[in-house]
Specification:
This protein has 552 residues and is of the alpha/beta class. It is 27% helix and 25% strand. Strands 12-27-28-29-23-26-13 form a 7-stranded mixed β-sheet. A 7-stranded mixed β-sheet has the order 21-18-19-20-14-17-22, with no helix packed on it. The radius of gyration is 31 Å and the shape is elongated. The chain binds adenosine-5'-triphosphate (ATP) and magnesium ion.
Length: 552
C-alpha cells in the first residue's frame, strides 16, 4: 500500500501508540489489526476513519490489516453490501491483499468453542423467553436473578445445544448463555446470551445453520482466530471488553490474546451517518440511492466528487481521541478544496443566466479568445473561448441600483469579462413584472483579453457566449438534515438539501466524461454526475463552494 495519508494518520493516534509500543516492548513482536464491517449497509465517512486508522497503524508498524466481514447476523446482511464495502475500501486507497475473511466461515469453530464452554461448566442452555430474561437481568443498582435453568448438567446442556443446532426448537425457544455472574456491576457479564436460534438463510452459509453466535461471543473469537494483536474499536464497546476477555480466557486455545483499544466515533455536523437512518432514507426513496451525493456514505461522497486523498487527509487531521465530539463539516470541505485547487481546470458556467447584448459588436460575427485553464498551473494548458454579441452573465452580477462598493455590472459602470473585454452597461429591458429580460452594453475593443493600460476596473465576472452555450442541470447542496423536535432522532431531511438549476456552460465543460471535475469560476468545484451525465443532457454536482468557514 502506498499511502502517505495513512502513515501520517497513525501518528495522530497518540494513546493507541502508547499501548502498542508498550506491547512491543514485551513479548509481542508484530502488529496485526483488522477492519470488521458488518455487511448490512454501505460504508460512511465514520468507517473511513476506522479504515484509515486500522490500515494506517498496521502500515506504520510494518504489520498487517485484515478485512473481515462480521456477518454473524443473517437478518440484515447481503452480498450487495459485501461488494460495495470492498469497492469503497479500495477507492480509499487501502489493500487487504489476500487477507479477506468472513466471520461466517468460523461458524464450525465457534460452535466447537461453545461446546467447550459447556463442557467446562461455563455455559448453559436457558429456556427463558427474551421478556423473562430482561425482567431477571436487574439494573445498575439491582443485581440480576439466576436463571432457573442455570444448573442443568453438562450432559443435558450438550444434548440440548446439539438439538438446538439440529433445528428441533423454534426461534427464541432456547438460548445458550455464558455462566458468569448475575450480580456483576457490569451488565454485560450477567450471563449474556452467546447463541440464539434463528431459522433464517444466511447470505454465505445458506441454510446450514439455524443457530447463530451473538456479536459479543463471535467478535473476540474472530479476532483471536485471526491472530489480531490490537482490536481497535469504538467507545461503545468499552463495557464489553471484560466479556471479550472472559470469552478468550475461558476458551483458552489462542496463541495471541487481542488487546482491545477503544476510540471515539467520528460525528459530523449537518449530517447523519448511522446505517439505520441512511437505509431508511434510501428505502423510502427520499434520496437517489446509497450514493446520493448529499449522503456521507463513501459512495455518496465519491459521486459528490470528493477525492480519496482529501478524505484520508481529513481523517489524519481530526486525529483520534478517547472522548466523543462532533467535527465541523467545514473541516472536511476545507480538505476537499485544498486537494482540488492545484490541478482542477477552471472554466465558466452561469447558474442563473441573464442575457447581455453588446450593441457595438458586429452582428453575425464572433471570435476566439485564448484563456488559461488554471491561474497557476500551466500544465493544464489553455483553451479557445468563443465571444460575440450575445452572452450570458449571472443575474446577481448586475444591479440596477447598486450599493457602494458593488464592483460588478450596473448602469453606466464598467466591468471586466474574464479573458475577454471591458463592457459598460447602457440599459436594460424588462418584462411586464419588472424582471430584467436583457441587459444592453457596449464593449471596448481596446481591452482585448481583459487588459487595459489607461484605466482600471475592479470587478471581473464570468460569462458564456450565448449561441455556443450548452444547457446543463446543476445540483447545489446544503445540509442533509435540519433539527426537528417532532422526529424520533431529533432531525429530519432538509427540504433544501438539494436545489437543481438550469445553467449555461461553456462547450468545453459539457464535452467531458462522467466524474470529470472543474472549478466553475467564482462558483465552486463541480463534477459531472456519474449516474445521470450524458453529453446531450449534462448534469453536474457541486462538490464544494469556494468559500471556507474553516481555518486550519
Ligand atoms: P453504524 O452505527 O453507522 O451503522 P456500525 O458501527 O454498526 O456503524 P460496523 O459495520 O459494525 O458499523 O462498523 C465497522 C467498524 O467501523 C467498527 O469497528 C466500528 O467501530 C467502526 N465505525 C463505525 N462507525 C464509526 C464512526 N462514526 N467513526 C469511527 N469508526 C466507526
Ligand atoms: Mg454494527
Amino acid at each position: 500500500m502506498t499511502n502517505e495519508g495513512a502513515n501520517k494518520f497513525g501518528e495522530t493516534a497518540g494513546f493507541i501508540h502508547n499501548y502498542i509500543q508498550e506491547d512491543l516492548k514485551g513479548e509481542l513482536n508484530k502488529v496485526h489489526t483488522r477492519f470488521p464491517p458488518e455487511p448490512n449497509g454501505y460504508l460512511h465517512i465514520g468507517h473511513a476513519k476506522s479504515i484509515c486508522l486500522n490500515f494506517g497503524i498496521a502500515e506504520l508498524y510494518g504489520g498487517k490489516c485484515n478485512l473481515r466481514f462480521d456477518d454473524t447476523n443473517p437478518a440484515k446482511e447481503d452480498v450487495e453490501f459485501v461488494n460495495s464495502i470492498k469497492e469503497d475500501i479500495k477507492w480509499l486507497g487501502f489493500d487487504w491483499d489476500d487477507r479477506l475473511y468472513f466471520a461466517s466461515s468460523y461458524f464450525d469453530k465457534m460452535y466447537e468453542f461453545a461446546v467447550k464452554l459447556i463442557k467446562k461448566g461455563k455455559a448453559f442452555v436457558c429456556d427463558m423467553t427474551a421478556a423473562e430474561m430482561k425482567e431477571a437481568r436487574g439494573d445498575l443498582v439491582t443485581p440480576g436473578k439466576n436463571s432457573p435453568w442455570r444448573d442443568r448438567s453438562v450432559e443435558e446442556n450438550l444434548d440440548l445445544f446439539e438439538r438446538m443446532k439440529a433445528g428441533e426448537f423454534a426461534d427464541g425457544e432456547k438460548t445458550l448463555r455464558a455462566k458468569i455472574d448475575m450480580a456483576s456491576p457490569n451488565m454485560n457479564m450477567r450471563d449474556p446470551v452467546i447463541y440464539r436460534i434463528s431459522h433464517m438463510t444466511h447470505h454465505a452459509s445458506g441454510d446450514k445453520w439455524c443457530i447463530y453466535p451473538m456479536y459479543d461471543f463471535a467478535h473476540p473469537v474472530e479476532d483471536a482466530i485471526e491472530g489480531i494483536t490490537h482490536s481497535i474499536c469504538t467507545l461503545e464497546f468499552e463495557d464489553h471488553r471484560p466479556l471479550y476477555d472472559w470469552v478468550i480466557r475461558e476458551i483458552g486455545d489462542f496463541k495471541v490474546i487481542p488487546r482491545q483499544i477503544e476510540f471515539a466515533k467520528l460525528n459530523l455536523t449537518d449530517t447523519i451517518m448511522g446505517k439505520r437512518y441512511l437505509r431508511n432514507l434510501v428505502e423510502t426513496n427520499q434520496v437517489d440511492g446509497w450514493d446520493d451525493p448529499r449522503l456521507c456514505t463513501i459512495c455518496g461522497i465519491r459521486r459528490r466528487g470528493y477525492t480519496p486523498s482529501a478524505v484520508r487527509t481529513f481523517c489524519e487531521m481530526i486525529g483520534v481521541a478517547k472522548a466523543n465530539s462532533t467535527v465541523d463539516m467545514g473541516q472536511l470541505e476545507y480538505c476537499i478544496r485544498e486537494d482540488l485547487k492545484g490541478d482542477t481546470p477552471v472554466a465558466m458556467a452561469v447558474l442563473d443566466p441573464v442575457k447581455v447584448v453588446i450593441t457595438n459588436y458586429p452582428e453575425g460575427q464572433s471570435e476566439f479568445l485564448t484563456v488559461a485553464n488554471h491561474p497557476d498551473n500551466e500544465a493544464l494548458g489553455e483553451r479557445q473561448v468563443e465571444f460575440g454579441r450575445e452572452i450570458y452573465i449571472e443575474r446577481e452580477d448586475f444591479m440596477e441600483e447598486p450599493p457602494k462598493k458593488y464592483f460588478r455590472l450596473s448602469p453606466d459602470k464598467e466591468v471586466r469579462l474574464k479573458g475577454a473585454y471591458f463592457i459598460k452597461c447602457t440599459g436594460v429591458s424588462k418584462d411586464e413584472n419588472g424582471v430584467i429580460q436583457t441587459i444592453y452594453a457596449t464593449y471596448d475593443p481596446e481591452t482585448k483579453g481583459g487588459n487595459c493600460l489607461t484605466r482600471k476596473v475592479k470587478g471581473t465576472i464570468h460569462w458564456v457566449y450565448a449561441p455556443a452555450a450548452v444547457k446543463a442541470k446543476v445540483n447545489l447542496y446544503e445540509n442533509l438534515v435540519v433539527k426537528d423536535e417532532t422526529s424520533d432522532n431529533g432531525y429530519s431531511l432538509n427540504p433544501d438539501s438539494i436545489k437543481t438549476v438550469d445553467a449555461m456552460v461553456e462547450p468545453y465543460i459539457a464535452d467531458c466524461s462522467p466524474m470529470d471535475r472543474f472549478q466553475f469560476m467564482r462558483l465552486g468545484y463541480f463534477i459531472a454526475d456519474s449516474k445521470h451525465f450524458t453529453k446531450e443532457n449534462p448534469v453536474f454536482n457541486r462538490i464544494v463552494s469556494l468559500k471556507s468557514s474553516f481555518k486550519p
